[in-house]
Amino acid sequence: MIAITGATGQLGRLVIQNLQKTVPASQIVAAVRSPEKAADLAALGVQVRQADYSQPATLEAAFRGVDKLLLISSSEVGQRAPQHAAVIAAAQKAGVKLLAYTSILRADSSPLGLAAEHKETEAMLRASGLPHVLLRNGWYTENHTASVGAAVQHGAVIGSGKDGRIASAARADYAAAAAAVLTQEGQAGRVYELAGDTAYTLTELAAEIAQQSGKPVVYNDLPEAGYKAALVQVGLPEGFAALLADSDVGASKGGLFDDSHQLSQLIGRPTTPLAAVVKAALAG
């Protein structure tokens, strides 16, 4: 039995799609806060169980009989540590044999502020004694291509990444890696640094958008405070804007670069090229 937390999220759904290629739906548990949002998964034969990070009793029930658990990191930055602690404790009580956790690229040395709660969660896992595997995910290419429309409209990609190289991969690539780890033996104790096969600067991202859209698009590098202010101006919450600006500065320091190719080795194919994700974003 394999359970996925956050199963109605974008990554969770993709992991389940991958698992279904080799695992019977009845052996997959979608652990979700709102079961009504998982009706489509239930229709596929996947077991849907309520699992609310803030209600530990639901977690214990959701993990009953589960052998392997994928803890997809909570989307609530600032609340992650206590939420993840609740999942780890419930997994221990349920007798889970392997917990896979979606961390961040080189969590132990990352310059990104975003890494702090991941580092804390990794420490909790080590202290728990629970057999676990760390999926240290790099940047999702979709983090950048989500704003392709705005870049074309305004003729610019903005950020604070300077010339930092970003080895991102598509969300689907990371989902395939998680499914591979959950269906292979001998994963306990492993640490995977997962990133795209090729890297690009934000200037190169802008050039790719320009080439595919046929419109002039350049990269404007801003100071961290200026980038944060621009994000707030377009409607992002201040905390999230600060996080994104900090992450860009981290990228300028090499925090989102990796050339170990562990992701493509794990999934048995090259990672999705930047051009393909940009094309999909422009078409969408």
General description of the model:
This protein is α/β, with parallel strands linked by helices. The strands form 2 sheets. It has a 7-stranded parallel β-sheet, with helices on both faces. It has 13 helices and 9 strands. The model has no long low-confidence stretch (mean pLDDT 96). Helix 1 packs across helix 8 and helix 10 packs antiparallel against helix 11. The protein has a domain of 160 residues: NAD(P)-binding Rossmann-like Domain (Rossmann fold), CATH 3.40.50.720. The two termini are 35 Å apart.
Task: Summarize this structure briefly.
The protein is 45% helix and 15% strand. It has 284 residues and is an alpha/beta fold.
Salient structural properties:
single chain; 284 residues; alpha/beta; 13 helices; 45% helix; 15% strand; two-stranded parallel sheet; Rossmann fold; seven-stranded parallel sheet
Strand order of the largest sheet: 3-2-1-4-5-6-8
How much helix, percentage-wise, in residues? 40-55%
Largest sheet: 7 strands, parallel
Strand content: 5-15%
Question: First CA to last CA: what distance?
Answer: 35 Å
Poorly predicted runs:
none
Can you count the beta strands? Answer: 9
Number of helices: 13
